[in-house]
Amino acid sequence: MTLEHGQLIYEGKAKRIFQTEQDERVLIEFKNDATAFNALKRSELEGKGRVNCHISAYLFEVLESQGVPTHYLFQAADCWMVAQRVEIIPLEVVIRNIATGSLCKQTPIEQGEELLPPLLDFYYKDDNLGDPLLTEARLEKLGLISLKKRLEIEDLAFRVNILLKTFLKKLDLILVDFKLEFGINKDDQILVSDEISPDTCRIWDQRVANPEDRILDKDRFRADLGGVVQAYGEVLKRIQGACAKPRTCS
Asked: What global pTM score does this model have?
């Protein structure tokens, strides 16, 4: 389905963002493109955009129901979402609950170790630089945000972690780690933005013991395990069973 929209504002690896008739609203299209390793690996997976759009809509509404501010307004169609227009802060905020992936490659922390408390990392959002990990000193040197806003982002990220972990645990899903992006709206309010989906979260199936079969996220694409959209669909199915349908207008 193609919706009426204005000029293309931005196109990323997984989404396109368009203007709308209302200046403070944008229309977001979730694409079927799959990428990994800073887009060195690419493919197109039929149905991926639809599933990620639905999952993101549900999870944004879960967060909003608990008082977390997000850019999400409503789901416009299968692959389309309407959101507040924000200026994205060029930081990727990663929360880790269980050690895996790059953390285990870069440190002696063992695969599968539970991280108590959860680990929060900031990365500089720049594909040309490979989204490098930022130390506190580097973050301060770049001057991307004030200390007050950084602390607000950290607080929001940890709140999101608690809420998502609790919600997904009820569905027998383990939230291993995830990436968040934040934006600032016209009222200078910080909002959880971008998307929350198996593209941006590591999710394991608590009902499955096999380390490969339990993966329900983009690691299936990274490791050529197959069944990527089917795994994402399993996450969506469980969420749909626990939530009302996402709102479709606002």
From this structure: 0.96
